[in-house]
Design brief:
This protein has 314 residues and is mostly helical. The chain has 15 helices and no strands.
């Protein structure tokens, strides 16, 4: 039990670093302004000013009149989209593609990190990582071209199976193609942060577990998993919060007239309505709706994870 003088001395010691930091900042505030001002200016110019374009979602936008002089239509475009007979189809396709991709794709980088961590030979580990990371540097359009060649009627897969199926025209195959190609391209690169986090796992605990006869699964559960748990939670929250944010490039490049039943998602619909049809107000409204849903999902998932993870979230 500390006496009052000891407690006062301890409090004064704790206050000294904070007071010293405040004094340093007060004396050298110009230095902080010089370094932070460019970042603030660039963020304001490229992040906040473009947000004024959201107004297009509530206007019958005319490029000649501009954002501030186009006729105001309120929530007309939102009502039109929600009342559209294709709304549930586009929303369902987007959600299914995202949720299935999250369920199948999210665990793969974690598993890869655990497997890479078992490789003792440094040279072999680097070579394996190089092979796994390379697909990430392939352009999305090049990847889609490779997928189309692989799955064409005369492609390698049909030759291997002895069939003559055109997988790119099959609506039932689109989601599998999209998700599988995405896992192949991005899983290796996504495993980097988990591999780095595993470096913090206690080697002493791992050696002790091995001496005690723990098998590989037990070592992963009790030694390695705690080292990456927080990283996994944060990545899961961010991934779940971006469920509606599927880029249109890959989905659009893999679309055909025959597979649109499952391939048409909100982002490709926005692209077609906005840039191809020139309906800027309607496409902006649909995109804004998509963003709001993402924000709500992010908040909800973060709250759920906090309750399940002892209050730890974003």
């Amino acid at each position: 039990m500390r006496t009052e003088p000891e407690a006062a001395a301890l409090n004064s010691k704790n206050k000294k670093p904070a007071a010293g930091m405040f004094l340093y900042f007060k004396q050298h505030w110009q230095l902080y302004v010089i370094f932070l001002l460019p970042a603030f200016v660039l963020t304001f110019i490229f992040k906040y000013i473009p947000m004024s374009g959201i107004m297009i979602a509530f206007e019958k936008y005319n490029p000649i009149k501009g954002v501030f002089h186009s006729p105001f239509v309120g929530f007309e475009y939102f009502q039109r989209f929600l009342a559209s007979p294709d709304f549930l189809s586009y929303l369902g396709n987007t959600l299914k593609l995202s949720v299935y991709g999250l369920l199948w794709g999210f665990p793969v980088p974690i598993i890869l990190a655990f497997l890479l961590n078992r490789i003792v030979n440094a040279a072999r580990k680097r070579n394996m990582q190089l092979v796994l990371y390379l697909p990430n540097f392939i352009s999305v359009i090049v990847l889609c071209g490779m997928v189309r060649i692989l799955l064409s009627v005369t492609g390698p897969l049909n030759l291997l199976l002895g069939t003559h199926l055109n997988f790119m025209t099959m609506p039932s195959a689109f989601r599998t193609i999209y998700i599988a190609s995405g896992i192949w391209q991005g899983a290796g690169w996504a495993s980097i942060m988990y591999t780095a986090a595993l470096a913090n796992a206690s080697k002493d605990l791992k050696e002790a577990a091995q001496l005690d006869g723990a098998n590989i699964l037990q070592q992963i559960r009790y030694v390695e998993w705690p080292a990456i748990k927080d990283v996994v939670v944060i990545q899961f929250i961010l991934s779940a919060g971006n469920i509606m944010s599927i880029g249109f490039e890959k989905a659009y490049a893999l679309q055909t007239d025959m597979n649109l039943k499952t391939a048409e998602i909100i982002s490709t619909y926005v692209y077609k309505k906005g840039l191809l049809d020139g309906n800027y107000g309607f496409s902006t409204a649909v995109g804004l709706f998509n963003t709001v849903i993402n924000l709500v999902l992010l908040i909800c998932v973060n709250m759920i994870v906090k309750k399940m993870n002892d209050g730890k979230g974003l």
